[in-house]
Design a protein that fits this description.
The complex is a heterotrimer.
Chain A: H1 9-30, H2 38-57, H3 65-89
Chain B: H1 22-26, H2 31-59, H3 70-89, H4 92-106, H5 114-136, H6 150-154, H7 159-186, H8 199-231, H9 244-277, H10 285-298, H11 314-342, H12 351-374, H13 376-382, H14 386-416, H15 422-449, H16 463-493
Chain C: E1 4-5, E2 8-9, H1 18-53, H2 55-63, H3 67-92, H4 96-126, H5 139-142, H6 154-190, H7 200-224
Antiparallel strand pairs in C: 1-2
Helix pairs in contact in C: 1-2, 1-6, 1-7, 2-6, 3-4, 3-7, 4-6, 6-7
The chains are: A mainly alpha, B mainly alpha, C mainly alpha.
The structure holds copper (II) ion.
Chain lengths: 103, 543, 229
């Protein structure tokens, strides 16, 4: 009855090794000075790793659009929560003084 | 109510007589019985929250604090808020009517996960036990918003058990929403396409989105407050460089959308009832459906309007203000479409319809005053005054609660198979409307004049308006008792309702009242567009 | 298509067929994971905010964590994800012994993860790196690893450790819960409950377990690898 796509152990192993390599890469690049880009680089690698897990281990690649929508929208909400909150915190001190009242 | 010749027969097998033991209720997986369990539990909490409201209104009769100390008063309004919001309004329409109606309206035998549904009720009850423990053991005084650092460092009341209660109740809400979404996606009867779904379903779909995307953030936030208090891990503690406004961001990320958890299902109810008693196809089905989704999505990005005077960045304030104005548009779309539905309809004024009329007027006032508050300058003047109190009571009591009562009257015959006394119920509806406006309209004026919220003493100039408000609250209280009397009366003396006492459209009216355990003998095939009402008023309906 | 096992119907009364039942269960699990994203999300917001504000302190705090142990735990979790995926594969293809062994391996790896975590935490406790009255942190010593030592404040290092404990703690709770459900799966699999026709629970628990792995994939660089150059 199963309409599911069955991946082979070989495919899983490939993904597994890619994840291990990417872990090594993320540790390696942590020791390189990217300045302000350190965290974005680390996050980019983490996102690639998470995507691999999602696509293959979690079979997202073979899932319907609704599943994609669910996971993408939760991620978008999270990013929005982070960005809007930070947007407040880091513009708080950029206040312009009100113009002096001419008396 | 006089012609008994044509009284319909009461069905032989119903979900109500499918087992009478306590066990058959407490271990039921039937979505209808679970809806009834919720009905009983939230009615209890409504009464409890109402009791706190009563004490608050009594205290405010006089400018002096004569009934209670300020400490006690703080606990009163806190517990009123917590009980009414988390244990009554959030579950109210979704947990009772959503549970009862979502599967039936889409032609399914149950929700997708009946066991999870029962577990949700138990989670709600477990959360309620913690909250009740906090209440009886001395109460909690942080306000329902738990603002830090007061709640984490200074409050000397039962914050932790309340927080645990709300955390658990939050998961109940999440799983209810999850159940609805899966059910609506996967269990629709053949022919029940998305644009044939009743608007009640669209409203619940939108509500469920907020439940599953917003509630977890409340969960972790309230858990962090508990952890900070219990273990001293001060994530919001300024002593560690923590930002108390971070708490407010996280809290309102849920708690503004939570307003839509309360009002969206209410709007779903209004759409169902208004088209039935106007005997007309709903006007602008597509607009109403999409506006529900728009409200759910846009509503996520306006939370900072609660923080204008909190030292939030003024740029953030500007954006939140603009977005808050934007979210008023889909709400207005609904009001216009409901009004257009009435145009040239053959309108009748049964109790559910009276509540709907009340809702539309009151919700419009509540919504428009929301725009006052969304404006940065105006908010500075009325922030934390009775203007805000009046505004959100217009939305939650005037809006959500009136819709809840409309739903109670509209679907009561379906749930119990019995008719309630129409005349008395209409008196109740009018009493609720009058009492409600008398209670809360003076509060707009009070707030505009500068009466701050959360105080049990005030200057004598405000007394007249407070007396009016308390007098109104007494009318409102009596108004709420009347439906209770009607429903209890109907259980004993009510006429049998028959499958479709309102001659309404929708799958729930095609099956017996009360429905049998598995809803449909055979899964229906839907061939018709929704709300195919014709203007020929029926004689049965007015008997 | 066999709908029954040991005479017991797999199809709940309110579903039309097994396909519908399965698609409902799968969607439910994905929705649950979406809520989990936002549940952890609150912590990620706090982390991002404070890391940006108190970067020096976070770098100093991060240097107190062991990269070796962090790497070992990352490898352990990734491997457990692999064995979980193989467990699902075993169930999908009806290889009972293979499925059982894979689940057992997943359990062992999850246990190993917790053991490593235990040693990590207890080392922190010994060094008084626990937020609270006993919190001790040698600022002058840490000054060597940060770019702007004058910005370093001990209370902000404390904030790093607060986040460290709460984030890894919440993740740890998820690992413990995972061990519970995988152990249950294992006993069911041993009984031969799952087959090529029916393996939905294995698949759903698999989804959950991979999610736990994904959370760790983010936690590892955020907590262990700050400012290491
Ligand atoms: Cu709001």
């Amino acid at each position: 009855m199963s309409l599911d796509h069955i991946l082979t152990p070989r495919a899983y192993l490939t993904v597994f090794f890619m994840l291990l390599v990417l872990t090594a890469v993320t540790v390696y690049v942590a020791f390189i000075d990217f300045g302000a880009w350190s965290t974005p680089v680390a996050m980019a690698i983490a996102i690639i790793k998470a995507t691999l897990v999602l696509l293959y281990f979690m079979h997202l690649r073979y899932s319907d659009g609704l599943t994609w929508l669910v996971i993408v929208s939760s991620f978008i909400m999270l990013v929005a929560l982070v960005l809007i909150t930070l947007g407040d915190v880091f513009t708080r001190t950029m206040t312009t003084a009100p113009p002096a009242l001419g008396m | 109510m006089t012609t008994d010749s044509a009284e319909p027969k009461y069905p032989e097998h119903t979900y109500l007589n499918d087992g009478y033991s306590l066990k058959s209720w407490l271990l039921t997986k039937d979505h209808k019985r679970i809806g009834i369990l919720y009905l009983i539990s939230i009615t209890f909490f409504f009464a409890l929250g109402g009791l706190f409201a009563l004490l608050i209104r009594l205290e405010l009769l006089t400018p002096q604090g004569d009934l209670m100390q300020s400490d006690t008063y703080n606990k009163m309004f806190t517990m009123h808020g917590i009980v009414m919001i988390f244990f009554f309004l959030v579950p109210s329409i979704p947990a009772v009517f959503g549970n009862f109606l979502v599967p039936i309206m889409i032609g399914a035998r149950d929700l997708a996960f009946p066991r999870l549904n029962l577990a949700s009720w138990y989670m709600y009850m477990a959360g309620a036990v913690f909250a009740l423990y906090a209440i009886v053991s001395g109460g909690v005084d942080t306000g329902w918003t738990f603002y830090t650092p007061y709640s984490t460092a200074h409050a000397d009341s039962h914050v932790i058990s309340t927080a645990v209660g709300i955390l658990i109740m939050g998961f109940s809400s999440i799983f209810t929403g999850l159940n609805f979404i899966v059910t609506i996606h996967r269990m629709r009867a053949p022919g029940m396409t998305w644009f044939r779904l009743p608007l009640f379903i669209w409203a619940h779909y939108a509500t469920s989105l907020i439940m599953i995307l917003g509630t977890p953030v409340l969960g972790i936030t309230i858990a962090l407050v508990g952890v900070e208090r219990a273990l001293g891990l001060g994530i919001f503690d300024p002593a560690n460089g923590g930002d108390p406004l971070l708490f407010q961001h996280l809290f309102w990320f849920y708690s503004h959308p939570a307003v839509y958890i309360m009002i969206l299902p209410a709007m779903g109810v209004i759409s169902e009832v208004i088209t039935c008693f106007a005997r007309k196809v709903i006007f602008g089905y597509g607009f109403i459906a999409t506006s529900s989704m728009l409200i759910a999505i846009l509503g996520f990005f306006v939370w900072g309007h609660h923080m204008y005077v909190s030292s939030q960045s003024e740029y953030a304030g500007l954006i939140f203000s603009a977005l808050s104005f934007l979210v008023a548009i889909p709400s207005a779309i609904k009001v216009f479409n409901w009004t257009a539905t009435l145009y040239k309809g053959s309108i009748t004024f049964e109790a559910p319809m009276l509540y709907v009329f009340g809702f539309i007027g009151v919700f419009t006032i509540g919504g428009l005053t929301g725009l006052f508050l969304a404006a940065l300058g105006m908010d500075r003047h009325v922030h934390d005054t009775y203007f805000v109190v009046a505004h959100f009571h217009y939305i939650m009591v005037g809006g959500a609660l009136m819709a809840y009562l409309a739903a109670m009257h509209f679907w009561w015959p379906k749930m119990t198979g019995k008719r309630y006394p129409e005349g008395l119920a209409m008196v109740g509806a009018i009493a609720v409307f009058v009492g409600f406006n008398m209670t809360f309209f003076p509060q707009f004026i009070l707030g505009y004049l500068g009466m701050p919220r959360h105080y049990h003493e005030y200057v004598p100039e405000f007394q007249f308006l407070h007396i009016m408000s308390t007098a109104g609250a007494s009318v409102l209280g009596v108004g709420y008792l009347i439906p209770g009397v009607c429903f209890l009366w109907s259980l004993i003396h009510g006429r049998n309702a028959g499958p479709n006492p309102w001659e309404a459209k929708g799958l729930e009216w095609t099956i017996p009242s009360p429905p049998p355990t598995h809803n449909f003998e055979e899964i229906p095939v839907v061939t018709e567009e929704p709300y195919q009402y014709t203007s020929e008023a029926s004689s049965v309906r007015h008997s | 298509m066999s709908d029954t096992l040991n005479g017991q119907s797999r199809l709940a009364h309110h579903f039309v067929d097994l396909q519908q039942q399965k698609s409902a269960a799968t969607l439910g699990m994905w929705l649950f994971l979406a809520t989990e994203v936002l549940f952890f999300g609150g912590l990620f917001v706090a982390y991002t905010l404070y890391k940006l504000k108190y970067y020096e302190a976070f770098v100093a705090g991060s240097h107190e964590l062991s990269i070796t142990l962090g790497c070992v735990n990352t490898a352990i979790l990734i491997t457990s994800s692999l064995t979980m995926a193989l467990g699902v594969y075993g169930a999908q293809t009806g290889r009972k012994a293979f499925a059982c062994n894979s689940l057992l391996a997943t359990l062992a790896l999850a246990g190993a993860f917790l053991v490593v975590k235990y040693f990590e935490w207890s080392a922190k406790f010994e060094h008084h790196l626990v937020p609270g009255p006993d919190f001790q942190f040698d600022v002058t010593h840490a000054a060597a690893v940060v770019a702007n030592p004058e910005l370093l404040r001990i209370e902000h290092v404390k904030m790093f450790f607060i986040l460290y404990y709460i984030m890894t703690g919440l993740h740890g709770i998820h690992v413990v819960a995972g061990i519970g459900v995988i152990a249950w799966l294992y006993t069911q699999a041993r009984k031969g409950v799952y087959s090529a026709e029916y393996y939905t629970p294995v698949e759903l628990v698999g989804l959950y377990w991979h999610f736990v792995d994904i959370v760790w994939i983010f936690l590892f660089p955020l907590l262990y690898l700050l400012g290491r150059h």
